[in-house]
Amino acid sequence: MNDRVNSDIPTSRKILRTRRLAPLGSVAALGVAVLAAAPGALPFAMTSFVAPAQAAETAATPPGFGDLVAKVKPAVISVRVRIDQSNDKSAMLQQNRMDSDEGSPLDQFSRQFGFRFPGGMNGMPRQRRQMITGEGSGFFISADGYAVTNNHVVDHAESVQVTMDDGTTYAAKVVGTDPKTDLALIKVDGKKDFPFVKFSDQKPRIGDWVVAVGNPFGLGGTVTAGIVSASGRDIGNGPYDDFIQIDAPINKGNSGGPAFDMSGNVIGVNTAIFSPSGGSVGIGFDIPATTAKLVVAQLKDKGAVTRGWLGVQVQPVTSDIADSVGLKEARGAIVDNPQPDSPAAKAGIEAGDVITAVNGTAVKDSRDLARTIATLAPGSSIKLDIFHKGESKTVTLALGELPNERQAQGKAYDGKVQPGTGTPRLGLGLAPAGDVQGAGREGVVVTEVDPEGPAAQRGIQTGDVILNVGGKAISNVAEVRSELAQAKSSGKRSVLLQVRSADATRFVAVPLA
Description:
By secondary structure, the protein is an alpha+beta fold. The protein has 10 helices and 27 strands.
């Protein structure tokens, strides 16, 4: 039940305002002329002009959601959990997070919607057994009692109770959870005729109607409607973010509830909101049905989720990086560093290689690669299209299994493009790594940074180690100058550097004017 947040949202985005539009209250505003007539009589001109307009307006008005709601609402449940506060270390950590100020950045993305703490939690004696309760939502996906909710709703729960739309309550057990996607599968035993809904096989379009059903503020089955506002949202929650954004109001307690299309199929699982106040401001995020189906199937079969593992640290290919390595367009994921003994390393993938496709499907960026690999089973044989030192090739390898402590993350790159200095210089003071204590033996160490130079503008700092320039490993300053000159003479607009900061490596494209 941890708060899931993104603290990088600028303050300027916290205040969202709307304007109230005055209704068009006069017939003249509709462009209809009113003719004088006897009292009580309807002017002929108004009848002839208004009737077609009214008919067109009636035809364009949505028919309402009553039939849809009657069909799906019985399958939606309220989920109530109890957690032993005194014995669960994780619960204590959750308390510390949830006691943060409401105005802090930790509340901007609130995943912990739905947990009530009567009397407050500050000052709870830790030596006594203390139970905290939480409420969320869920929905049945089979007649024999399997139901979907959020991981953060049932995480560390000692007991789970579900309440149906008719008020009937049942005890439930947790079958399995997946923190990386915030999904959980629970089971109610004893019946074989629960009402249930199905996941949609169609990806919703932006602008499609969506109906959310859940348990906001513990009120029980509540229905709201809106549209799909956006797709493919990354809110900084994890490596597999691919959220659907909706504007149907969802609030505390809606976590784990379904969002339906007009056919009554689940297009997403409500999991997060953007809110400066804790309440709905019309920006909600759903786990897509395509993701939920894959995760839930594994939770049902094995109680846990296993994911394919490639074993590379990657970052997006920017336009400067594409130019540096010779790609015609900025797409794919560039390998910062293959992990030792990983499937990628064993297949010969090297730092600086660009992965452009998996099994023939183009890779958009590093996050797309992480999501794609995660959907494949460990041991699967895959084909990767690689751009290696100016040439395209295909590599076949067998995926490993992603251990719990590893995450196939796509690292963000947010360097700003800056003009060059007119000469192939970086604006750096350099020294061989072997001459600097603690820097290792490979590459050159950045000893000084010109704040106005192109390298500084790309985030290179004192203490960084440059391992590679233009695709060639370097060990001294002369080799750096030589590679810069060669890059400029060949007409490149930027040069690609492999840089190690602390224990991580990344590629940086520095412009050459």
